[in-house]
């Protein structure tokens, strides 16, 4: 009887985790759809600041609210702790190497239409350097990592396993960055998504993911400013 009760409890717990995973996936996909749609609508009113407002209100704040509502412990996904200089140099070198390699491949095989290129440059240069650093580098690195490699991966991992969760998180991350301009850089987002989830699996430290994401964004700002 005790064994049967134990099996029933385990089954209930498993079903509960699956339900939570379904709710989380639906919620995150709704977040991405809202973000992509709202950005296009609000950009004409607030410019680049629309990205900052939406990143915080759609990506950052809701993960804490949903964690509370679904009774998901912050310790299950908020893996933020100090790292050594050695690890810092390792992930930084790996990031730079992959950015350079991917950029070379894209320059050889992919041609971005001049009109789209100019639109994107104008989009980046429409703000001051300080605004670019805050809106296009710092906030996305924090908000997106809290959502994707933090909350989403940490919540799905226990019920779906590391590999399945990693694939789902990476696919959603890539899809969440595609529009009529960035679609030409899909290879780059594939590389970045795979790199970030690899670091999350390798070092289990969300802070490292934030740093790599930030480093990537800083390099992108410098590149588009040239």
Give the distance, in angstroms, between the N- and C-terminal Cα atoms.
Answer: 72 Å
- The mean pLDDT is 85
Q: What is the total domain count?
A: 1
- Give the H and E element order: HHHHHHHH
Shape by Cα distribution: globular
Going by helix content, strand content and strand pairing, the class is: mainly alpha
Extract low-pLDDT stretches: 4-15
Q: How many DSSP helices?
A: 8
Estimated share of beta-strand residues = under 5%
**Main pleated sheet:** none
If you had to describe this structure to a student in words, what would you say it looks like?
There is one protein chain. The protein is an all-alpha fold. It has one domain. Helices cover 83% and strands 0% of the residues. It has 8 helices and no strands. It has helices at residues 2-46, 49-69, 85-109, 114-125, 129-160, 162-175, 186-203, 206-225. Helix 1 (2-46) packs antiparallel against helix 5 (129-160), helix 5 packs antiparallel against helix 6 and helix 6 (162-175) runs antiparallel to helix 7 (186-203). The radius of gyration is 19 Å and the shape is globular. It starts with a helix and ends with a helix. The model is unreliable at 4-15 (pLDDT under 50).
